[in-house]
Amino acid sequence: MVEKKSEIEILSVDLVATWSLDLQVETCAICRNHLMDMCIECHDNLEDDLCTISWGKCGHAFHRHCIQRWLTTKNICPLDTQVWKEENKKFNKK
């Protein structure tokens, strides 16, 4: 019996994956960018591929640079006007 040669040959494979956080609010209320994207400051400076998310005890999340700039004028959450208290989330390692 004659061996039949395959007509298709795979030369290379590139694997791609995506991930996201389980959030109720997916955009930063300050800069209006998606929380999984870079904030305006990181985008302008091209500092890093990842922009750290800052979580408040109230449950709201913002880009760290955005909320730091906000807190220089007001020490309240931009969404619910409670006093801003940051909560440490274990996946924020920066």
From TrEMBL:
GO terms for cellular component: Cul3-RING ubiquitin ligase complex; Cul8-RING ubiquitin ligase complex; cytoplasm; nucleus; SCF ubiquitin ligase complex. GO terms for biological process: G1/S transition of mitotic cell cycle; positive regulation of D-glucose transmembrane transport; SCF-dependent proteasomal ubiquitin-dependent protein catabolic process; silent mating-type cassette heterochromatin formation. It comes from the Eukaryota. GO terms for molecular function: protein-macromolecule adaptor activity; ubiquitin-protein transferase activity; zinc ion binding. Pathway: Protein modification; protein ubiquitination. InterPro entries: RING-box_E3_Ubiquitin_Ligase, Znf_RING, Znf_RING/FYVE/PHD, Znf_RING_H2. Residues 39-81 form the RING-type domain. Keywords: Cytoplasm, Metal-binding, Nucleus, Ubl conjugation pathway, Zinc, Zinc-finger. Transmembrane segments: none annotated. Pfam families: zf-rbx1. This is RBX1. It comes from Hepatospora eriocheir. The gene is RBX1.
